[in-house]
Amino acid sequence: MRHFSRVLSVGAASCAALLISTAFSQTPASVSKTAAAAKVTENKVAPLHNPDGTPDLQGVWSNATNVPLERPAGTGGGRARAARPEPGTAADVHYDLSQFGLDRAHMKIAEDTRTSLVTTEDGRIPARLPEAQKRAADRAAFQREHQWDGPETRPLSERCIVWPNEGPPMMSPGYNSNVQIVQGPGYVAIEQEMIHDVRIIPTDNRPHAPAEIRQYLGDSTGHWEGDTLVVDTTNFTDKTAFQGSSGSLHVVERFTRLADDRLQYEFTVDDPHTWATPWSAKTFWTLAGGQVYEYACQEGNHGMANNLSGARAVERRAAEEAAKK
Amino acid sequence: MRNKLRIATMAGAAGLFVLAALPAAAQTAPYRAPRMADNHPNLNGIWQALNTANWDLRGHAAGMGRVVALGSEDAEAPGLGVIDGADDIPYLPAAKAKKDQNYANRLKDDPEVKCYLPGVPRATYMPYPFQVVQSTKTIMFSYEYAGAVRVINMDKPTKSPTDSWMGWSNGHWDGDTLVIDVTGFNEDSWLDRVGDYHSDALHVVERYTPRSPETMNYEATIEDKNVFARPWKISMPLYRHVEKNAQLLEFKCVEFVEELLYGPLRKQPRANP
User: Fold this and answer.
1) Residues from chain B contacting residue A151 (CB–CB below 8 Å)
2) What CA–CA distance (Å, rounded) separates A159 from A138?
3) Is 0.90 topped by the overall pTM?
4) I want to staple B163 with a disulfide (CB 3.0 to 4.6 A). Which of A54, B4, B115, B186 is the partner?
């Protein structure tokens, strides 16, 4: 099982790109099936409440989505997607990932016909400031030289420290897109299956942890605004970068349950070292049900040792070849 | 005189009352914990064991640590032990040999050294806090160490679909006690730093019982036909973190063990890691 999860994750890394690139050319069966129901749930109904009166956000949710973060070129600036391409035409060709159990038809996906999650006018993230572009370029240049040097220069996900989707803001990882919310008095706990990290958010709007405490997932504090949970997160490290952000990232998330099976997740990010203006995005989660399984990552991380020893073998061979000349 | 008598009688009666009341108090009417809306005890909070069970479940005097360079910081802290009604763990003879081997290799093989998930019950008495987030539907146990987590199914019990480090937890209430039946373990976690272990046949029944506003009793019955001759039990109090704004912080220990696990595979291994 441990081995399986790593093999899967390697496959999924490459599959994620495929999923995104094909998102527009396929309409998964699950979406078609739920389209009718989704129309009904668009009408905001009285939200469910816990016995203590707080809105009930609990459940195992899928945050998988067919909608790209930014509006791709070729949508004519439209805010809604065209209908499914004619079956059998070139536009309908898509990769079948069912051999990995990753076919989108296997996942529950909230109905959403928009062309971008980003809610700016053009559906695009504002351009990064020069200092952010330089930061990204420097990092990329360093990585080109040093990516195989040791564990610290490998991606955080490969190191089993944190997955890029975890945020906050929390994005769909592309597979295992399962998020469980449990609420106790004064707290909302959010577990993301990838990679078994829990955010425990106090809802008393308490101050953030001291500024010197920097965390991969930041420090979150929340409060209720009507039926919406508002979560404010700061105290990030400079080791994660959401769309090129720095350790000064500030995230405000808004969770609103629109219906029994539909949750609206909005976020606004701002970072004076990355963007000139804050920007926002919105996505929908759908109730997945079931239980979240354990995603043990570090425990089966044979990939790290294999990658590094492979890199050393390549260097040795290159040295031998050079010595022969 | 009559008044004096009366006072004496009253005093005597009061004394009798006190005497009568004392034994009743000593019988300790069970503590009644604050309730959730569903009338079950409210176990929400940040808890931690204050003992040295993670070093050794048995009673043990202070001892030499494992890493010479760490001196007294790594010395084994003493403890009275948490095994209920016995001094030792009832290993099957063959299993005892494996335990001794684990002890000999503990610096290399203890999963805690490698930042692996701690399993149950070890997660409870590691030297880090954990938080209980309890709703009327579900109970989540979130542990600071390695970000370990369990979600307790309080609905109809379900069967473990696969083995895992933290096991598969079905819970129910027995009066004021939260009882969690945990199965579906893999064989890779340990019970403490001296190599006490189990197989994938491990079955743990935990009992969490509120005993005061800031404490609860923890018991775990441990059963494993491949390793132990009979079921055995540990018990300990758990203490609530009462400091203002107490919160779990990230303890993502992976990055602290990368040098240990991968150091020799670096392009330029560190001279003094």
Assistant:
1) 258, 261-262, 266
2) 21
3) no
4) B186
Indicate the residue of A151, A189, A197 with minimum beta-carbon distance to B140: A189
Residues in chain A closer than 8 A to B261 (CB atoms):
151, 304-305
CA distance A137 to A241: 13
Evaluate if residue B6 carries a pLDDT over 60.
no
Task: Find chain B residues with C-beta within 8 A of A159's C-beta.
Answer: 254-255, 258
Cβ of residue A226 closer than 8 Å to a chain B Cβ: no
Nearest-CB residue to A58 (from B36, B132, B137)? B137
Q: Does A83 score more than 90 pLDDT?
A: no
Percentage above 90 pLDDT, chain A: 68
Structure tokens at A4: 């399986």
Distances (CA, A) of B210 to A306, B135, B136, B236: 48, 17, 17, 12
Listed by start position, the domains of chain B span 45-242
Rounded distance, CA B246 to CA B126, Å?
18
Cβ pairs bridging A and B (under 8 Å): 134
The contacts of residue B193 (CB under 8 Å, 6+ apart) are B54, B55, B56, B76, B106, B110, B112
Confidence of residue A136 (pLDDT cuts 50, 70, 90): very high
